[in-house]
Design goal:
single chain; alpha+beta; globular
Length: 128
């Protein structure tokens, strides 16, 4: 059964967001190469770690009652999973793209408009 393995925080001002989560929770952030991406370590024990990146698109409306992190779910076959999403009434939010040395990632929306990620691990995923 696929499980969440990673979360992402999409930020209009990544440096401000890094400072916020460091100050509030003590999370550790490390820049991942030259990409505008930070790996987030949330601590020891149970739980998942994540990432922080610049927002792709407009910020959520201030009046929206819930703004959240993107949870990413590991899958064995990304193309088949994307087909299952659309068959079940979901939509593609951002197309399949390689994450070098990690795998293939796409973002989807469920039938309620919630965004989630799907990741097919592949150490041989090339640079975009």
């Amino acid at each position: 059964m696929p499980r969440p393995v990673h979360f992402e925080i999409h930020a209009g001002d990544p440096e401000r967001a890094v400072a916020f989560y460091t100050n509030v929770f003590g999370w550790k952030f490390e820049r991942w190469g030259e990409a505008p991406y930070w790996v987030v370590s949330t601590g020891e024990g149970n739980g998942i770690d994540g990432g922080l990146l610049p927002r792709q698109g407009p910020a959520p409306e201030e009046s929206a009652p819930i703004h959240g992190f993107v949870n990413t779910i590991a899958v064995t076959d990304l193309d088949a999973s994307l087909g299952a999403v659309t068959d079940a009434g979901g939509t593609l939010a951002l197309p399949k793209n390689p994450v070098p040395g990690v795998g293939w990632l796409a973002y989807c929306k469920d039938t309620e408009g919630n965004v989630f990620g799907l990741l097919q691990p592949d150490e041989n995923a090339p640079a975009p």
